[in-house]
Structures are given as C-alpha cells and as structure tokens.
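User: Second chain of the day. Same drill as before.
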Amino acid sequence: MLNRLNRLLAPPIFADEEKTRISQFMITFSWIAIVIVFLLILSRLFLRTDITNTPMIVFIMIIIVFLVMQYILRLGYVYAASVFVIFGLWGLMTYLAWVADGVRDVAVLAYLVVIMMSSLLLGWRFATILGLMSIAVVWFFGITEKLGLRVFHVDDPISYARDLTVIFMLVGVLIYLLITGWSRTLQSARIELQERLRTEEKLQKQADYLTALHETTLGLVNRLELGPLLESILTKASELLDTPHVCLDLVLPDESLLRQEVGYGYFAPLNGNTIEKGLGLTGKVWELGETIVTQDYSQWEGRISVAEEEGIVSIIGVPLKTGKKVVGTLLVAHTDHIKTFAFEQVLLLERFASLVSIAIDNARLYEQAQIELNERKLVETALSFSEERFRKVFHASPVAICITTLEDGLLLDANEAYWKISGYNAQESIGRRAEELGMWDSPQERLDFVEQIKAEHSIITPNYEFLTHDNEEHRFAIAFYELIQIKDQTCILSMFYDVTEQRQAQDALETAEARTRAILTSIPDMIFEISNDGTFLDFMASAEIAPVMSPSEFLGRNVKELFPPTIAEQTFFALDRALATGQLHAFEYGMPPGEEVQFFEARIMPITYESAIIMVRDISQRQWVGSEREKLINELEDKNSELERFTYTVSHDLKSPLITIKGFLGFLEQDANSGNTVRLKADIKRIADATDKMQVLLNELLELSRIGRLMNPYQQVDFKELVNEVVELLYGRLHEKKIIIEIQDDLPSVYGDPRRLSEVLQNLIDNAAKFTGTQTDPRIEIGQSGFENNKPIFYVKDNGLGIDLMHQDRIFGLFNKLDATSDGTGIGLALVKRIVEVHGGRIWVQSETGKGSTFFFTLPSGPES
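Assistant: Same format as last time:
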C-alpha cells in the first residue's frame, strides 16, 4: 500500500533534466494547493459561512484541474500540463469573481498566483499576456460596478480574512518553491563550476604532458633505424616518468617468445632474455593485450621472486600494438617506496606506447623497404638477364608461341615452332590481324574468347585442333593462353604444345588397352596384383569366378591374413621364385582346406622386381574329369582283371561238364552195341546231370553279368523287414539244422534295389547255415554296428566252421569253393560283392577257424549317400 502511495505521489522523471525539474515543482505545488483548498472547503462547511453552491463548485473544480494536470504530466506532456493548469485556474478565478463581488472579490488577488506560476512555467511572454488579461478583467468589473450594472455586498470579515489567508498561503508556498528551486540551481551551478575548474586543471596538466609527449615523440617517429630507435624510446620513457628502470621487449617473428631488446637500470642485465606468454608482468601484458599497473609488486599475484628481491616496488606494463596484434611491451618501474604512478602517467605512457608502436612499425617498414629496394635492384638485373634469356628460349623453344594484342588481335611476334605448326609465313603475317589471317572461324568466336580471357586471365584448352594454313594437315596441341603487359599494352601470350604424335600413340594405346581388356575380360580367370610382401594391390574380376569376399575386404591385406598357412606358403614360394627368376610359376590348391571340394590353379608372373600378377583359374571340372578318368581307368582295369579271371574260370569250370558229356557219349555207343541198358541209363543220367550243372553255371553267370546293368528302381527299404522276408524264405534249411536266428531291433533303413539286397542276405544267411559244421547250438546273428562314411555297417555272424585267414581273400572270387563236396557253384559271394559295390558299399569278412565268421557290409541310407 505504501509503495503504491509513493508511486502515486512521486513526480515523474524524464531524460530532459529541465522537464523533470518543472514536473517536480508542479507536482509539489499541486498537492499543497489541493490540501489548502480542501481545508478551505472544510472550514466553510464547519463555520457554515458562505456555503453557496458556486464557490464550493469552483473549489472542487480547482482540485480536479490539479489532478488532471498530474495525469497529463505522467503521460509526459509537461508543456501541455502547464498550459492546462494556468488557463484552467485563471478561468476558474475569473468565473468566481464574476458570480461573486467582481473587483472587490478575493479571487481577483489569486490572479497574482496564476501570473507568477505562468512566468515560471511558460515564460515571460505568457505571463505578460495573462497579466494584461487579468488587468482587463479587473477594469471590466470596475466599470460595470461604476455604471451600476453590478451590485456588490460586503463579505463577513472572518470569511474575507480566511480567503486572504488562503491567498497568502498559496503565494508563500509558490515563493518558497521558487526560492528553493533557485537555491538548488545555484548549488548545482557552484558544484559544476568547481568540477569544471578541476577538469580544466587536469586538462592543463594533460596538455603539458601531451606537449612533452609531442616534443619527445617527434624524434622517435623520424628515426628509421630500429636499434637506435629502441634506445631513444627508453630514454624518452625514462625522462617522461622520471625513473631509470625501463625496458622494451619485442615478440619473436614466430610468436613463440617475448625477448627483451633494450633495458636500463634494473632491466639492463636482462637484455636478450626471453619469456613465455602469460609468465610475469611482461608475459601477462602480452597475453591480455592490456595495460597492467601495480603499485605494490610484492602483493601482485603474478610476481617473479627475483624481481621482488631486486627491490621492484611499483611497475607499469603497456602493450605495443599494431592494429589488434601485440608486437611488444614497454615496462616502467620504481624501486622507491615513495613514488607511485598517477593515473595521468598511465594515460601518458599508453599514448606514448601508441606512438612507439607507430615508430617501430616505421622503422621496420624502412628496413623492409631497404631490403625490398635491394631486392628490386637484383630483380631488375635478373629481369634484364631474364628478358634476354626469354628471347633466346622464345625462339628456340619447341613449343609454338605467338603474341597478339588483346583488342585488335594483331600478331606481334611468333617463334619458328609456331610458323611450322600453323603453316603461316613470318614476313606475311606479323603486323596483321587475326581475322585477316583467318585464325578464327568467325569474328564472334574471337569476341567470346576475348571476354573469357578477360574474366579468367588464363585459359587452358587441352584438345586444341590445328588446321594448317594450307588445309593439308591436322595437328593436335595443348593450348595455353595468358594475359601479359607489354609497354602498357595488354596482349595475349599463346602457347601450343604439339601432341599430335602423343595423341596418335594414345589412340594406339587405348586401342591396345581395349583389346587387352577384352582379352582379359574373356579369360575365365581372376587376376590379382600382389606386392613382394604378399599384399593384394589390385583386382580384376572374372566373368566365371566370383571371389569369396568383396575386393574392399581383401585389397590392402596380406595373403597370410586371408589364406590357410599351407596355401600361403605355396603362394610365397611361387612368388619368390617368380620374382627371382622372372619366369612364370604355377601351383594348384584346393578349397576349403581339408575338404577340397573346389580346386584352383594359380599362375604367378612378375611385373616388376616388387610386384607380380596372379591369375587364378577354377580347375575343379578338370580335376573332376581327371579324378573320374582315374576312377574309370581303375574300374576298367578291375573289370579287365575280373574278365580275365571270369574267362579263365568259365573256361575251366565249363570244361568239366563238357569233358564228362564227351566221355560218356563214347560209353553210350559201347553200351548200345553191347545192349547193356542198365549201364546205358546210368551214363545218360550222368550226361543229364553234367548238362544241368552247366545250365546252372550259365544261369548264375548271366545273373552276375546283369548286376549293374539291369537294376530295379532304387527306393527306401526297411532293412529289418527285408531280413525277416529272407529268413522266411530260408525257413526250410534253417529249421532243418535247428539254427537260431537273432535279428537286432531298430535296424536303419537303406536305399537301393530291394530284389538285389534280398539276394545279398539270401547268400550270406544260406552260406552261414550251410557251414555250421558239427555245432550243437548253431546261431546266426544279423545286426548293425556303427557307420563308415555316413553309411551303416551291417553284419551277418555265425558260430560255424569259420574261414582260415589264408583263404579269406579268395572267397569273393568266381567259382571259389573252399569245400568241393558242398553244393553250389561258388558264385554266391562274388554275386554278393558285386551287388554291394554297385550300391556304393563294400564287404569284408572277419573269421577264425572253428569260431565262426562275420560278414560286414555297408549300404547307403539315402540317395545322397
């Protein structure tokens, strides 16, 4: 609440100090006037004198005028508020006098308050106008009363005294405010005057400093040699600040360190010393780029203990700048505890440092200018020599060169190579324009060229085609165009490097390269470039072989990282031999190692002493063909051997029945002649038996020959079910000899010809039953034991006679019977072996005499086997 009241009563503040002063005066006077008028209203009500409506309304209107004036003031319209309150109050007082006693009314005296306010707020012109208006109104009231147009009455003395009191109070307040305002104004003027005197004193002191600075720095700026300049700078700085302890440091050209160039007093022994940025006062000034002043060096946080021990008390460090870059520092120090550095001295040293920076720049520029002048003289000498050399090179150069003017295209000069390549003649061409010589197809083409070279200053045309002047030959060149100045004239230096032979060679090379690439593309090989340390450098893909990884995965990597040790060793051996001998070396390898399902041939041929190419070709098909060829050869050899044995066996075993038949045919003739019918019948029976034996032999041989040629479709066969069927077929023999059959449960299924597999089991089980011997408890066991190459191993085991080790290799041959008295032809086991091998399996026997035999055989479990 109090804050709001303070904001309400507080006068507004403006940027214009005069407006603020006037608003403060008006706010203060208005609140005092409002209080006095309000008290006047209360006194009239309390005393009950002269409580007519008109005066009360006028008093309330006065309060309203003051409040509206405050509102206008707070809006910022000070002048408008002044005009409003002056004329508002004057109007209300005139109205009050009109309705009251006219010239005899106390309200006429209030004109004095309004006129005084107008002179203060609006100036003497408004006050004069308002005074004249007030006098005119007073005379108007007096004349009307004189003429009897107005009737006056005498107010009550108390009321009159009261009203006069109010007028006096308002006048007093107004006079008080005026006097207070004038007093404040005078006080401010006095303070301002004292401040101005102090400022003038400082300015005079600075003027004295600047005069001294000007006088001392004129000599600095005029010095052009850096060494004497630096000594002069320190001398002047010592004189200006009245101390012998001064030094000047400059930043090294590489901006790594700050080196003291010259020092006096305490700093004299330190000449040539360097300091890093940020260390000590010097390094700190360099780092910050600002002036550092300390009046007590012992208390400065960045102090150096050696300087403190030497007695440095107060010190100033000023940066020397070129633009915003610090190029050095200037230090001034006191060792006397009485002396300190005044603010004016700091300013003086900073200005002095600015002039010092300029002087150092001038000295450096002077030295640089001297160096440049010397260099220019050398350049001019060299240029003169270069021009002569250029002239010789110009005319002797194999590059075609000509010089033409930029705007007109006049041919100024050209060398012999240009005349030769262009077909022009020097005597007929020099001094003529390009259009006249027919160098351009059209004038517009040259205008476009001129605009381009103006914009770019130099142009390179790598494929420029020259048509000689006589149109007999096309030449190709690389064209260079450059703008040059010759005696204030802009010219074009044109150079044409004849590449006709190179272009022809390039075309031939591109043709050869295309042909080579076509050949390489058609080669079914992957081609690698490899370094002598085994790193893959480049790769050319094959249309038939895809690498096992993308080129980004093996380029840049070593053979040892990518291949197994065996293949890496083969590669390095062949690589070393190829690089050493310069001859082609090749080797073969299989992938993946250990399985070798795919085979490759690598041929290594050296390119340089440090690299070679490897051509890798897939030879899997060739290897397969070779492997199949070996298999077929081996199989053919086995067939031939078997055929030889078969032929021998057939001729031997078939001969016996034939001899028998032939022999008994002779006996038949004797028996017929003698009439011995009994013997005749016996001989005929022997001939029939021999014929039956031959028929059985021929049938079994025919069956053996059909195996592998005539086969039923393969299918998945339940092996246990097949065993049961065979046992059922052989039930008679097995039951006759009281043989116990044991069949293993869970026998795996096999893939093959069920009829042929049944023949295998029939022969094996029948043989086992046939050779039980004198065994009182004969047994035959059929089962499966393990796997070989993912094929189940089956067995047929008996406890019969067994087979001697020396005969175990013969039992699978044709007509090989270990017991000649036994029935059968001796083809059964040969038939079994043939069927098992056709199915992709093998059969073997383990046996010991008197302990029985076990026939093992493998069969595929599926098509993939």
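The chain has a mean pLDDT of 77.

User: Great, on to the next one.
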